[in-house]
Amino acid sequence: MRFNELDEEKNFVHKLDSRQKAFLKKESELCKTTFPFWNYLNDLWNIYDFLSIIFLLLVFFIHLADISNHTSEISVVYIRTFSLAIIFISIDIFKIARVLNEVRFFN
Question: Does pLDDT of 10 surpass 60?
């Protein structure tokens, strides 16, 4: 699926921008070599994404428990875990910065 997205993205790259073409070529080669799921987990950002999804599900279920049985203890636990989830998810911005650095967006 990602490989098809990369092929479609090549149509939108400006003709003179060789850096983006090189990045897309590198990503498509990476997709070809790391097709199995266990190779997908070699990147620590992917593991981080799975952990963040699990953490958000935990926050969601605590929120449902707070809605169904509202007590001050559950509310405090929900507010604290939600605050940690916001910090945890905001670190995901670094992954976007890594991609932009690969394309030399900042240079």
Answer: yes
In tens, the pLDDT along 28-87 reads 777 776 666 666 777 788 888 888 899 999 999 999 999 999 999 999 999 999 999 998
- Concatenated DSSP letters of 39-84: HHTTSHHHHHHHHHHHHHHHHHHHHHHHHHS--HHHHHHHHHHHHH
Q: What pLDDT shows up at residue 13?
A: 63
Give the count of alpha carbons within 13 A of 6, CB side only.
16
Distances 59 to 47, 66, 70, 85 between C-alpha atoms, Å: 18, 10, 15, 8
Q: Which long-range contacts (CB under 8 A, 24 or more apart) does 22-31 make?
A: 23/102, 23/103, 28/3, 31/2, 31/3, 31/6
